[in-house]
Specification:
Pfam families: MarR_2. By secondary structure, the chain is of the alpha+beta class. The chain is built from 4 helices and 2 strands.
């Protein structure tokens, strides 16, 4: 039986970054169930599209999410990623990785 989920790997990566803004890509990959290379590609795509910013601090990256960005599918464009994060993010996670609301 094929497995599928309602959220994409991109959404899962966003949730990991929202929970821990200085998370390592190897940890993101393990949590999402993808390769480290796929996690790196997704982060780069999200960064190129303006959904997150990556800042180098020493040997680590710190990620900042732009929560005011719209979801990409035409059916969902009236919603912002901040809404997605509010609905699915770990409620005990610190919101320090969240950027402007709009």
């Amino acid at each position: 039986m094929a497995q599928w989920t309602f959220l994409t790997n991109h959404a899962h990566v966003l949730l990991c970054v929202a929970e821990n803004p200085n998370v390592r890509l190897r940890d993101v990959a393990a949590q999402v169930g993808i390769t480290e290379r796929a996690a790196q590609r997704i982060v780069t795509e999200l960064e190129d599209a303006g959904y997150l910013e990556r800042e180098r601090e020493g040997r680590r990256n710190i990620y900042r999410l732009n929560t005011g960005m719209p979801l990409r599918h035409p059916l969902d464009r009236s919603h912002r990623i901040g809404e997605l994060l509010a609905a699915f993010a770990n409620p005990e996670a610190a919101p320090s990785g969240l950027g402007p609301q709009g």
